[in-house]
Design a protein that fits this description.
By secondary structure, this protein is an alpha/beta fold. The chain has 11 helices and 6 strands.
Length: 336
């Protein structure tokens, strides 16, 4: 259930926080033909669902008055762009520019979720369409590769393309869309945090304002599709507190993981149950208070107790952590 933060029961080592969403794509994202594009209805729907959201990106153009009033103008929609402009004689592309927006040396955009819809201009220009899924896949890896991605802690949601009403262009649009679910599955197997939403199943030709862009009804339907993708990701990321090895049960194996990593500090530590960046007594208490949840506990009949000295030090660490305002570990998981 979604409440004022991300989830009523936060995922392990995460706290209720503002969800940073980066809308990424071409003119449908930019709002070229409809101010705010799908971003305006999506922001409203996210707020109504109780998901506190901040849109992030390199652009602030084409907002609605309501987006501006809420401070939600930012996005990374680029009208007329393709997946990779290095193969186009006339167009820019996301692939060769994405590092300038997500590079650590720049003011951090730091998204939690990236919403990607791109490829309509590739279809319009008949731009090596047989290789278009590969280009999209390379872009996905460039963003969320856990090894060297520009935003390795982000989750990318890939959306299929909405109708293309230009003569002869719907068939190649359909062909590209058909390749996307399998593409996402391949990247999930690589350990990349990515999922797919079938935006095309929401939007009909009657929802278009011209050949390539949605009308207000179509934009609201795109927003519905991405809202569903965001909610599905957040719900799938929910894990039991204290389940430090993420096997679905809080048991002795999780205690062992806590014990062996006690004293470590840093972001993203598996046994950091309270998200304060330290493995200490507070994380033991999270495990102890949820011991046995998720299934029969294996290997222990009662929650083990740490040494008395560690208990006192841990309680002091908890008090100090509560006085600090720190952000919890990041969630990890999958136009024209």
């Amino acid at each position: 259930m979604l409440l004022g933060g991300w989830l009523a029961t936060p995922p392990r080592a995460a706290v209720a926080q503002t969800l940073r969403v980066m809308p990424l794509g071409d003119s449908v994202t930019d709002g070229f033909a409809l101010p705010g594009g799908y971003r305006a209805p999506l922001y409203t729907k996210l707020q109504q669902a109780g998901i506190d959201t901040l849109f992030v990106g390199d652009h602030q153009n084409n907002p609605t008055a309501s987006l501006t009033a809420a401070g939600q103008q930012r996005h990374s929609g680029h009208s007329g762009w393709v997946v990779d402009g290095t193969i186009s004689p006339t167009r820019n592309g996301l692939a060769e520019n994405i590092a300038t927006w997500l590079a650590p040396s720049r003011t951090p955009i730091d998204p939690d979720i990236v919403l990607l819809m791109i490829g309509t201009n590739d279809v319009i220009d008949n731009l090596q369409l047989a290789q278009a899924p590969d280009r999209i896949g390379d872009l996905i890896t460039r963003i969320v590769s856990p090894d060297d991605g520009l935003a390795p802690d982000a989750h990318l949601i890939l959306g299929s393309l909405i109708p293309n009403r230009q003569s002869g262009k719907q068939a190649p649009t359909d062909a590209l869309n058909a390749a996307l679910p399998g593409l996402v599955a391949e990247h999930q197997q690589l350990g990349e945090s990515v999922s797919f939403v079938d935006v095309a199943s929401y939007v009909t030709p009657a929802d278009m304002s011209d050949l390539y862009h949605p009308n207000a009804t179509g934009a609201a339907k795109i927003a519905d599709a991405f809202l569903g993708g965001i909610q599905a990701f957040l719900e799938s990321s929910q894990t039991l507190p204290g389940d430090y090895n993420a096997d679905g049960v809080v048991d002795a194996a999780d205690y062992t993981l806590w014990r062996d990593s006690e004293g470590q500090t840093g972001a993203g530590l598996p046994a950091d149950g309270n998200g304060d960046g330290q493995i200490n007594q507070g994380d033991y208490l999270v495990w102890r208070d949820h011991f046995g949840q998720g299934g029969p506990a294996a290997g222990a009949s009662a929650a083990p107790e740490p040494a008395a000295g560690a208990l006192g030090a841990g309680l002091l660490a908890i008090a100090a952590a509560r006085r600090r305002q720190r952000r919890g570990r990041r969630l990890l998981v999958s136009h024209g």
